[in-house]
Every structure is written in structure tokens, then in C-alpha cells.
Amino acid sequence: MKRIVVVGASAAGLAAAETLRREGYEGAVTLVGDEPQAPYDRPPLSKQVLSGTWPTERVFLRPRPALDSLGLDLRLGTAATGLDLGSREVLLADGGRTGYEGLIVATGVRPRRLPGEGAHVLRTLDDAVALRDRLLPGRRLVVVGAGFLGAEAAAVARSLGAEVTLLEPAPVPLAHAVGEKVGRVLSEAHRDHGVDLRTGVTVVRADGNGVRLADGEVIEADDVLVAVGSVPNTDWLTGSGLTVDDGLLCDEFSAAAPDVYGAGDVARWHNPLFGVPMRVEHRTNAAEQGMAAARNLLKPLARKPFAPVPYFWSDQYGMKVQAHGCLRGHDDVAVVEGDLAGRRFLAAYRTGDHLAGVLAVGMPPKTVRAWRQAVATRTTWSDALGSTASVSRA
Amino acid sequence: MSMRVELDEPKCVASGQCVMAAPEVFDQREEDGVAIVLDDGPAPELHDGVREAAAICPAAAIHLVER
Ligand SMILES: Cc1cc2nc3c(=O)[nH]c(=O)nc-3n(C[C@H](O)[C@H](O)[C@H](O)COP(=O)(O)OP(=O)(O)OC[C@H]3O[C@@H](n4cnc5c(N)ncnc54)[C@H](O)[C@@H]3O)c2cc1C
Ligand code: SF4
């Protein structure tokens, strides 16, 4: 293989490009990214960048010399607009085309928006800086959506002295992801910190100066942040012949077509460890899948299934939430270490007969790693719980 | 080929991915899970694992100086 194109120059795309080099590939690597900046990291955007504790230079994924040493054909500020599988070419916004023998799609996701104008979203460095500059003591911020992103932004805004209203359509924030009791514990922290959390409310319009609810009520604000999930960036693949269904559809090797792989937030692949297709928007997965895609592309005869235990963390009000495995769609939850009231606990999630995942807050790393291992080895629920003395249903 | 391992500690998010990739070289602090470098000049046979750890670290907190 002499020419590989990676589209999307963020966590997954950079991991793929670096892995190609680390595996000894010496051919051309074109890394195409529509953002003008060198590859940077997103998790700090809703944490250290929003709070102003880090200068923006801290978010770049690699120092410039390390990036340069990869010898990439780096096309920043250039969007891919189409893909021709037949001629093996990526079409670029500047009118050019770049041919490939191998292709890695790592175009991530973009925020879902609501009707209205002037509301903030939080995905890019520019988004984070724009919101940061508005968060002053006494300013009124409405956050729409109490998922992890909205929750982190609300926490930071409070710490800066802004007045925060957090609106969530579900009765309990995060209930579908982490279960009701754990969701309640996490959301109680908002109220403790003076956030006006309002659940069971549907926002139909979000503007720069306030939101309108389904029942007609208007909540005024100085700024509005919409954090209601995201949409995979697959528009440029429309008509290419690749299958797109809430993400780029990939097999257990992360392949979407011969010599075409997907990685990161944009990819929906079959995870053989859990036996289901999944698309995860987690930072660690972006790196792992970028690496796996690069290796499988280079070694077609020695491909390895991509079978990770998904992992994510979230920082809110000094609580570090860590989750390993697949929590979504679980059948049962049990608190197996610590207790919910003290906000130091580890909850185990059952799907079918197996331990599918764990979520920990404030637990020692050895304990968390042992439980992660139990998830990785597909431990049955009864074996997993048999090892703990006291279990309380959550 | 020598390798020096540097950890940008304030960036670490306590994910433990480095410990899983290279347990001989990384550990986590008991109280908050922040990474500890056990061996900042690892032997050549450990280099692959350490490179894997640096690549997989979700905070880009591990820097390797190889020469
Ligand atoms: C504010 C924030 C906080 C987060 N916090 C956490 C956290 O605490 N823990 C956690 O696990 N995860 C967190 N995440 C999620 C994590 O950042 C993502 O999982 C990760 O960034 C995914 O990387 P990616 O490379 O797959 O996609 P992205 O980071 O979305 O990168 C895709 C890149 O491709 C570009 N692109 C899109 N379309 C095109 C095109 N047609 N042509 C060229 N380029 C294109 C995009 O502009 C972007 O630069 C957070 C995300 C955000 C936004
Ligand atoms: S992998 Fe990175 S973030 Fe995770 S514990 Fe190690 S140094 Fe910290």
C-alpha cells in the first residue's frame, strides 16, 4: 500500500495516522480535517477550557514537532465533500481529489441543534472559548439537556458564579444511560450546588436570549447552551455506496468496505465482545479504534476483531465518574461497593445473564480495574455478584 | 535505543489505560487514580507496551523521548 487517506483530524484520525507510522508504514499519509487548528482534544473543552484554568494551547494533542515528525500530507481547514469508491478518490471542498489505496473515515459527530438562533453548542475549541467568555458572575445560563456534557457545563458555570438553569426532558437525568438511582445521585449534585434543575420539560425553541418550552413558557437568559446529543458526520459519504445508519456501518474489524475503515464517534461497528453493533462517543474509543483500524488496514491477512470494553469518564463538581462496559439498555443495576448516599460507590450493570458494565465514583483504582477485568472476561452476573459481600439493588 | 517517559500529571484523567498497557512502567495513585511512572527509563523489551500506553492515553498526558 502506497497511499493512505485519513479523513477527520482529531483523536481517532490522529491515532490512526500515528499508528500507521508506528507499524512501519512508510508510504504517503494524507490527513484531511475541516477544522483549521492542529488536532486538539475535546474533553478539556467542557472542563479546564470552559473554566479558564487552562490556556487554549494546552488542548493540542501533540506538540508541533511530534506532529511534523510523522511526515504527513496535512490538509487542515479542508473538508471532504465526497467519496468515489470506484476510482478510490476522496473529493475535497477546494475542488481537488486525493486518491487512496486505503481509507480511514474518522469524521466524528456534530451537535444536534434545536430550532432558534444564537444558542451555543459545545463541540469545538471556538465553541468553548465563545461560551467561556460569556460565563461571568451573575450571568444567567440556560443549559438544555442534562446528559454528561450539559452536566459538566452546568457545573463549571456554577463554579464561575453564573446562575444556571438546567432543563431535561426525562424525569431523571441520565436514567436511560446509568439507571434511575445512579442518575438521581448524579443529578442531586446539581441542586446541592445551586443549579435550578428542572426535569420533565421539553424545549421547543432555543435562542441566544432564552428558550421556549412545549407548554409555551419562556425562560429568559443571557446565554443558552444546547447539549441534546449529536449527529454523525456522514453527509459527505451520501451516495458513495457505503452504508450509513446512525454512523458509518462497519464490521467486527472496523471495516466498512474493502480497504475502507471507520473509527471513533462516527463508526457503528459490531463489537464481538458484546455481540452487538455499537457506536460510542468516548475519547478512549476514538484512540483505540483509530489504532485498530490502521493495523487492520495495513495487515489484511492478520486482521484482529475490534472488541474493546468501552470506557468513559466525566468530571462534575469534583466527582469523577468512570464507566467501563456497556451500560445502555441494561436490565438491572446493583451497588456492589460503597454507597450511593456517600457518593462513593461502584454500580454493576446486568444485561441478559452477564455483567455488562460498571460505573464508579470515587473508588480506588485497583477496585475499578478488577471490575473492568470482570467485564472484559464476560463474567456472568451470578459469578460477579457472588464475589461481593453486600449488594443493594439500585 | 533509549526511552524516557514523561507524564504531564495535571492532564491525567485517571483512566488507568496506561497501567493496562504497560503495568511494569505505570501505576495509579490509590487516593485519586492519577498515574505514577514506576520506571522512567524502561528497558527495550518494555518499549512497545509503553508506546501503546502513550498512544491510548485519553488525555495525551504521556510523552516519550526516544533517541
Ligand atoms: C465538550 C466535550 C467533552 C467531552 N468529554 C468527554 C469525557 O469527559 N470523556 C469521554 O470519554 N469523552 C468525552 N467527550 C467525547 C470525545 O471528545 C469524543 O469521543 C472524541 O473527540 C471523538 O473523537 P473522533 O476523532 O472520533 O471525532 P471528533 O473529535 O468529532 O473529530 C472528527 C473531526 O473530523 C472533522 N470532520 C468532520 N467532517 C469532516 C469532513 N467532511 N471533512 C474533513 N473533516 C471533517 C471534524 O471537524 C473533527 O475535527 C467529550 C466531547 C466533547 C465535545
Ligand atoms: S492513560 Fe493517561 S489519563 Fe489514563 S491514567 Fe494513564 S496517564 Fe492518566
From TrEMBL, chain A:
Residues annotated as domain FAD/NAD(P)-binding:
3-290
Instruction: Please report the stretch or stretches of sequence annotated as the Reductase C-terminal domain.
Output: 311-382
The organism sits in which domain of life?
Bacteria
Q: What are the entry keywords?
A: FAD, Flavoprotein, Oxidoreductase
Q: Name the SUPFAM superfamilies on file.
A: FAD/NAD(P)-binding domain (SSF51905), FAD/NAD-linked reductases, dimerisation (C-terminal) domain (SSF55424)
> Which coenzymes or cofactors are required?
FAD
Keyword Iron-sulfur carried by entry: no
Q: What is this protein called?
A: NADPH-dependent 2,4-dienoyl-CoA reductase/sulfur reductase-like enzyme
Native source species: Streptomyces clavifer
UniProtKB/TrEMBL annotation, chain B:
Which residue ranges run through the membrane?
none
So which residues are the signal peptide here?
none
- Name all 4Fe-4S ferredoxin-type domain ranges: 3-31
Cofactor(s) listed in the protein's UniProt record: [3Fe-4S] cluster
Keyword tags: 3Fe-4S, Electron transport, Iron, Iron-sulfur, Metal-binding, Transport
Q: Does the keyword Metal-binding apply?
A: yes
InterPro entries from the xrefs? Answer: 3Fe4S_ferredoxin, 4Fe4S_Fe-S-bd, Fe-S_cluster_ET
Q: What is this protein called?
A: Ferredoxin
Main role? Ferredoxins are iron-sulfur proteins that transfer electrons in a wide variety of metabolic reactions.
Please verify whether the record's keywords include Iron.
yes
